[in-house]
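Hi everyone, sorry if this is the wrong subforum. Our group has a chain we'd like a structural model of before ordering constructs, and none of us has done structure prediction before. Sequence below.
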Amino acid sequence: MNDDTLSPPSALPPTHTMPTHLATADTVLSLGYLTLSSRQLLLLLLGGSVAASVWTRTAGLSTVLPPAGAALHWLLLIGLSLLILALTFGAIAGRSLDAWVMVLLAYLARPRRYRWRSLRETPLPDPDQEDAA
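Answer:
Right subforum, don't worry. Here is the predicted structure as tokens:
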């Protein structure tokens, strides 16, 4: 037999490399120091399209209300751009701002009052059966 085909028994078990950085997002676009994940790129593209739509739809404000319309036109665009940038790059307590928006919406959708009723209580009579009797 050939000695090259047989490997000597090892005292150590085989090792496997464990992946690290599982909590980091994959980079989709890298421009110098700016690296964007797929989530960030999608939010910027959607926000940019919404901002462009707002820009074209409010362009007539400057002709309708000459001094105030132009200022409102720019304020809407700047405010929307800041909101988009905050949602894309902002984070509080390790969560992105869009995750916090979803938490807020889930909280607001919950009922404010609960009615307690014992399970041992007899069920209420059905009003349809009372009408038939």
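For your construct planning: The chain has a mean pLDDT of 84. Residues 30-110 form one domain.
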